[in-house]
């Protein structure tokens, strides 16, 4: 049911006449489809927080008995009282939004706390392990959590700091690939599309706040939601330029009785100040045409003979002129003057020096015209920007090409350089500066993007022991997508909040290895257990939140081990990973990467712990992440009243401010000084005493209240 139908049902229960009238109006409105995307704001999403201790006042669900595989009761209850004296702690809970009051006594162990959108949550992070092979490089972080909550927490740590977001959300295919409010959304669900849109809209609105103006968001999708997603992105991302890329990911094709589908899509949403980086490969055409054996890449020159429309001689009389060439040396001498329309060209024209005239003759042997006027042409000849091709007997004409205006601009801005001129013909050798050359196209067709071979099979190698993840992306497809937007940004921060098996982090590590970059990724994924495995776990008496349940979840069972294996070059069982990486840089997978990664799980603190100031350790990782996820972390409140790590400092005892400020001035890599005080005046005084290069950030004394977020406004 949608939010509106829900509300109408409640109105009807209170006042049936009013409810009926409301329903009539709603139906009339619903039948008028607005032009564009039209979806209902769904009953707010709710998320179960299995690890969170149950307290008085919490919103909860009652779990089915252990061992049961029945669908859980979805009603929400409020905890009125907890009887801690009894052996099995019991709670009195009251049904929320009920017509008549209903209360029951339930064992606390059979309750799970629920956060609905608009409820306040206090997220914290707990480290569950790290891998260090990257020296002083920043850490890649992996966060096990509900991504909406993590995105909210990232608005504190990374507002306007992310260079690239790459997401591969659930495709809403009707299969068990996605849950809304704790239930799989099936093909039959009438609100399937609007639930998905509401779910995506909330997350994209928050994610947008994290992007730099020069940042880019990439969202992959398949045919189930591509049209709706396109409209949603347009609606949300005002000021962005959105392009849709078609990627062949399954060359064999899936037929399903109709056309054979081979592709999926990626929307590239370029922020207002973003720029893209050309590569050696445009990802569609064959690579042979421009990169030569000498290692240089050369731009394609433009044909001088006008083609397409307005290409006949009569269309531009003044662009019909002879080009004089020396047939022996193949040097272009000069052009002109133009031949008036009423005069016929002489194809055997020769001058005293033996130069011959070349006329614009089209493929169908009619007279055409050149693409430049005489003066511009002669100017370009002088610069060496016109080249002679081969003689075409049929047309009795020579091929001619020149550097287009766009390419000449690229010489001015340094993208192209003139290496020299041919001593005989005088034609310039124009090459791309560096290796970066070709603009990536909007259709990609590369064997390296095959999701079977370089997604499923590749991930299997890293996990070993038969572990598998459904439908990971091809590592090389993600690498190619990210290369377009972070190639020239060696310190880029890349976020993936539907990270699944962690392909994005793996691709970022490969990009770093290719150019010595220090990019970092932030990967967020929940710890869902695959639908096919859940029944067996439930039958064995397990529930979400139990350690034996959680260890089979995606984040703990797949994402973290895969990223650790990529870095160490060893499977979770300690075996060297077999095989070599392919394509852009090929080397044994067992070499791993010189990178660092740390794994976290998001926690939800109860407000009472927050009030009592018990939670510094839970926010310590957030402070470290805000300062760049690098160097030492301050994990405990410093006994001396202050501490200064590599990238940030923490002042807790304001009476020690002088010593703290001296220490911050002595640490050149410091970016942030966190100052814990509820007193604004004292905060300002410390801020004034800090070096200019250090950003002062105030924290409230009840630490977690700095990170109080409501789910949706
Ligand atoms: C299609 S997969 C991504 C696959 C990934 N690109 C790869 O190459 O492995 C989407 C992932 O998002 C996760 N997910 C779905 N809803 C989520 C949510 N609300 N919060 C966090 N993760 C979520 C799912 O568990 C799933 O692993």
Q: What can you tell me about this protein's structure?
A:
Helix content is 26%, strand content 23%. It has 713 residues and is of the alpha/beta class. It has five domains: 1-32; 45-117, SH3 type barrels (Roll), CATH 2.30.30; 123-282 and 441-600, 3-Layer(aba) Sandwich (Rossmann fold), CATH 3.40.50.150; 321-432, no CATH class; 632-710, no CATH class. The protein has a ten-stranded mixed beta sheet with strand order 8-27-9-26-25-10-13-15-14-24, with helices on both faces. Strands 1-6-2-3-4-5 form a six-stranded antiparallel beta sheet, with no helix packed on it. It has a four-stranded mixed beta sheet with strand order 28-29-30-31, sandwiched between helices. Helix 3 packs across helix 15, helix 4 (192-210) runs parallel beside helix 5 (226-236) and helix 9 packs across helix 10 (503-515). The protein is elongated. Bound molecules: S-adenosylmethionine. S-adenosylmethionine (SAM) is lined by residues 146-147, 168, 170, 469, 471-473, 498-501, 503, 524-526, 528, 554. Residues 146-147, 168, 170, 469, 471-473, 498-501, 503, 524-526, 528, 554 line the site of S-adenosylmethionine (SAM).
Characteristic key phrases:
alpha/beta; 713 residues; elongated; Rossmann fold; 10-stranded mixed beta sheet; 6-stranded antiparallel beta sheet; binds S-adenosylmethionine
